[in-house]
């Protein structure tokens, strides 16, 4: 035993030196690419030795490894981190809220560091999703894929992991364009520490292929895993069906994204999804219900930010958003917002705050805004009983979104089984119903829904552009809080028609940003691949650059 331990230390003094050299030569690489590799490299080096039973003698019998670790834990991790970083909502705060929610004019704020409200560039905030997604979302889901592939006991979990991976990557590529995809998150498995940036067209082709294969690979005869945050509320084969519908519903979203750059491909994929079976009603919605009984890692990531003392005092619903809902007498407004000063939810009491203003300053002082009510507390803030609840749900994708995309597809002449008018009415009705998923008491009656649809009927006799505007404006309403998706759909369609803010010294010449920028570290850590990717961006690595599917 003593000889073996001496040999162990000799070997590891040598191999730790090798590890140190490896670290020094890779220290300039982005941590997201090599962090997992270093951990696994230590294990692999420790596994070598002087005797044939050295590995057994030096293996901790209670330490989990690839053979003993329960892959279901990674399922929960992958789903939860998709809703936001456990590091106090890091990238959700910066990307979904600070940039997208105000650029798309769901929210407005006078906080100067909310760069999206004024179209300013904060390089760190703009890069935050790229930085955190690879480490906290892509790495665990890639490990989940690898650990379940080809294992009979994980047949359905493997297909679910492919769906989640597509869900994660499609958001990353929609924000930035070309990104590491085929080698992304594979530092340990593929040994790629400076992965190339794959073209978005190739990424989309593979994501759609993955969704198609995963949907077909799900089996009613195989068990479903524990720890499913999306559909754990459903049991048995009904949960298999729910995941299959999720895959095909995501296919509708991704297929629709191709409408500007590959009209034929968009039609093919959307029709394939409908044939496979998509969401039928609000009960199919994919969402994560959060928990305030744990710690800050389990609460709703958006609410965590919106309830901060220095945010809730100045974060308001945008005038653009509130004006539309009030004009249409939309019953959802009472549950989406409340007057900050007295918490009134009456429709007539709601007032949206204009984007692009500060507290203090010159021409941009809020007190100089048209219709200023005399106090910021007279503007509408997020409703704390529903959308700002710490234990409220994070919606992943809903039947309302899917049916609105299908309504657009019907207008474009796709074969989706129903007319645009029927799909539009179903989508709006289910959006009204889904408000109750925020809180059991948030009820919109059928009479209220019927009254809204009667006052705002589908424009069957309108032009194609009028129909597309009506459908995609409703999509904007339906994706309140899911602002990255609202921004992506606006970039694709141009709807709703938003009036950009004019703020002194902004970074976009007064236009709404169309992509966020890569992390500055990538220019040195992954220089060659980074430079090639930047060279492919229409407009360059700036806020006004465009991703592949976002054509004029």
Report on the structure:
The protein is mostly helical. The protein has four domains: about 55 residues, no CATH class; about 210 residues, Alpha Horseshoe (Serine Threonine Protein Phosphatase 5, Tetratricopeptide repeat); about 80 residues, no CATH class; about 80 residues, SusD-like, tetratrico peptide repeats domain (Four Helix Bundle (Hemerythrin (Met), subunit A)), CATH 1.20.120.840. Helices cover about 50% and strands about 5% of the residues. The protein is built from 23 helices and six strands. It has a two-stranded antiparallel ribbon with strand order 1-3. Strands 2-6 form a two-stranded antiparallel sheet. Helix 5 runs parallel beside helix 21, helix 7 runs antiparallel to helix 8 and helix 20 runs antiparallel to helix 21. The longest helix is centred in the first third of the chain and has 26 residues. The N and C termini lie far apart (about 70 Å). The N terminus is likely disordered.
Task: Please sum up the structure shown.
51% of the residues lie in helices and 3% in strands. The protein has 23 helices and 6 strands.
């Amino acid at each position: 035993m003593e000889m073996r331990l001496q040999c162990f230390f000799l070997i590891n003094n040598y191999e730790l030196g090798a590890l140190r050299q490896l670290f020094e030569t890779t220290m300039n690489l982005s941590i997201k690419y090599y962090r997992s590799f270093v951990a696994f490299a230590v294990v692999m080096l420790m596994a070598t030795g002087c005797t044939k039973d050295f590995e057994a003698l030096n293996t901790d019998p209670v330490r989990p490894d690839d053979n003993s670790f329960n892959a279901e834990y990674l399922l929960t991790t992958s789903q939860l981190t998709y809703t936001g970083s456990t590091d106090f909502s890091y990238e959700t705060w910066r990307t979904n809220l600070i940039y997208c929610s105000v650029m798309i004019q769901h929210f407005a704020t006078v906080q100067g560091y909310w760069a999206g409200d004024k179209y300013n560039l904060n390089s760190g905030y703009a890069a935050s999703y790229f930085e955190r997604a690879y480490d906290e979302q892509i790495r665990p889901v890639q490990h989940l894929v690898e650990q379940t592939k080809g294992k009979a006991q994980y047949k359905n979990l493997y297909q679910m992991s492919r769906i989640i991976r597509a869900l994660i990557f499609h958001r990353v590529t929609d924000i930035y364009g070309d990104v590491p995809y085929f080698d992304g998150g594979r530092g340990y498995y593929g040994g790629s520490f400076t992965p190339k940036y794959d073209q978005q067209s190739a990424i989309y082709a593979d994501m759609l292929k993955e969704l198609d294969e995963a949907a077909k690979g799900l089996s009613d005869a195989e068990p479903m895993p524990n720890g499913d945050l999306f559909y754990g509320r459903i049991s048995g084969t009904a949960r298999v069906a729910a995941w299959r519908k999720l895959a095909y519903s995501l296919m509708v979203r991704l297929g629709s994204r191709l409408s500007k750059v590959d009209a034929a491909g968009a039609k093919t994929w959307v029709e394939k999804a409908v044939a496979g079976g998509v969401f039928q009603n609000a009960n199919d919605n994919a969402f994560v219900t959060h928990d305030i009984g744990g710690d800050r890692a389990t609460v709703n990531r958006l609410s965590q930010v919106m309830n901060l003392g220095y945010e809730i005092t100045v974060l308001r619903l945008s005038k653009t958003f509130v004006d539309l809902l009030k004009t249409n007498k939309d019953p959802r407004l009472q549950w989406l917002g409340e007057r900050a000063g007295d918490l009134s939810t009456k429709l007539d009491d709601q007032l949206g705050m204009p984007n692009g203003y500060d507290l203090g300053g010159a021409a941009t002082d809020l007190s100089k805004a048209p219709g200023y009510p005399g106090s910021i507390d007279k503007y509408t803030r997020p409703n704390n009983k529903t959308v700002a609840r710490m234990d409220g749900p994070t919606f992943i994708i809903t039947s309302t979104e899917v049916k609105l995309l299908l309504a657009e597809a019907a207008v474009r002449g796709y074969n989706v089984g129903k007319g645009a008018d029927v799909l539009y009415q179903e989508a709006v009705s289910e959006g009204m119903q889904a408000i109750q998923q925020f809180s059991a008491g948030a009820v919109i009656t059928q009479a209220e829904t019927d009254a809204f649809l009667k006052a705002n009927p589908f424009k069957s006799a309108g032009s194609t552009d009028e129909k597309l505007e009506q459908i995609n404006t409703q999509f904007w309403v339906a994706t309140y809080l899911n602002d990255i998706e609202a921004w992506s759909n606006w970039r694709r369609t141009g709807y709703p028609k938003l009036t950009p803010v004019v703020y002194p010294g902004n970074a976009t010449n007064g236009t709404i940003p169309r992509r966020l920028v890569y992390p500055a570290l990538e220019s040195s850590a992954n220089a060659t691949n980074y430079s090639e990717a930047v060279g492919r961006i229409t407009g360059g690595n700036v806020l006004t650059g465009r991703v592949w599917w976002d054509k004029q």
